[in-house]
Amino acid sequence: MIVEMRVYYCEPTRLPALLDRFRNITLGFFDHYGIEQIGFWTTLVGADNHSLTYLLKWDSMAQREQVWNAFQADEDWIRRRGETEAERPIVTRVENSFLAPTDFSALR
C-alpha cells in the first residue's frame, strides 16, 4: 500500500469553492475511477489556513499512474473543473508526497 498526501493551497477566500468542488464534483469522479480516499482536512492552525490536505490509498505506483492519468484526462472532469474556475482561479499550487507505512503503523 502507498498513501499519497496532496495539499492544495488556495487563493484567499477560495477555499469554500474548492471544498464545494470536491463535495459536489470531484468525489463523483473519484468514485467513477476507483480512487480511494482516506480523508480530507482543512488547517485550523498552521502556516496556511487556505489549504486542503487529503490522503489517497493506492495499491502501487503503477496503479496510481494509470488511474490518476485517466482521471486527469477525462474531458468531463476538465470541463467541470474549468467551470468552477470561470470566475477566477481557486488553487495556487499543489504539493504531493507518496508515503509508505512502517512495519509498526496502524495503517498498513
TrEMBL record:
Signal peptide: none
Top-level taxon: Bacteria
InterPro entries from the UniProt entry: Dimeric_a/b-barrel, NIPSNAP
Residue intervals of the NIPSNAP domain: 3-105
Protein name: NIPSNAP family containing protein
